[in-house]
Specification:
- The protein is mainly α.
- The protein is 66% helix and 0% strand.
- Helix 1 runs parallel beside helix 4 and helix 6 crosses helix 7.
- The radius of gyration is 18 Å and the shape is globular.
Length: 222
């Protein structure tokens, strides 16, 4: 029964990430009645091409019509999403706190990855986490959030080292996690970015995906 439950949780996590990928790609021009299609040839996808992870394996990572390579990033992030939810439950973390936070971070990460900018309205996705935290006695660190935002805003103003969206997101996370954990998130984010730099020496990187990965790590270990 445990294996079956973990499988259901894994499918749920991977499906959430798969769905959020589409939302981030289409936002703000979302058509709820639009059927999924190939980003290259716009061919409508069959049902077996819509199953997270499995579809990538089944199709060999290519569109069956135009043979366009499906980015390996998709099954990787879907797998991480499924495994993340399983670990959240195994470590007895609060899933009602974690899922809205995960939804916001994943959505912003894909937006940043696809376009290099984010829509601030998506910060509203974290409201259920804040409401749940208030109702269940979780500490919220508003002063830490203000100080984090102010320090990073000034740094960005003078040095333009990170984007304003990164500053706003880290300020929000500081309210939830406090000064010790937000420092860990910033340090781990920078470390992941540096590691990526040695593998792909670009001049700049989209930083929110690293913040998302670091937040997931800190949440699971703190």
């Amino acid at each position: 029964m445990t294996y079956l439950f973990n499988l259901v949780v894994f499918v749920l996590g991977s499906s959430i990430v798969s769905f959020l990928t589409v939302i981030a790609h289409d936002f703000p021009k979302i058509q709820l009645n639009r059927r999924s299609q190939c980003n290259n040839c716009q061919n409508i996808l069959s049902w077996y091409e819509l199953i997270p992870i499995f579809s990538f394996i089944l199709t060999g990572g290519n569109c069956k019509k135009c043979n366009f390579d499906i980015p390996i990033m998709y099954p990787i992030t879907e797998t991480i999403g499924g495994l993340y939810l399983i670990v959240v439950l195994i470590k007895d973390k609060d899933i009602y706190f974690a899922i809205p936070l995960m939804i916001m971070l994943v959505t912003l990460s894909f937006m940043d990855y696809f376009y290099g900018y984010i829509y601030p309205v998506c910060y509203a996705l974290i409201l259920p986490t804040f409401i749940y935290a208030l109702l269940h006695g979780y500490p919220l660190y508003f002063i830490t959030g203000i100080l984090t935002y102010s320090a990073l805003f000034l740094m960005n103003h003078f040095y333009q080292s990170i984007g304003l969206g990164d500053v706003e997101l880290l300020g929000l996370l500081a309210i939830l996690f406090g000064y010790e954990d937000i420092l860990k998130i910033i340090l781990i984010s920078c470390l992941l970015c540096i590691i990526h730099y040695f593998g792909n020496k670009k001049r700049s990187f989209r930083f929110i995906p690293y913040i998302t990965a670091a937040t997931g790590i800190v949440y699971l270990i703190s």
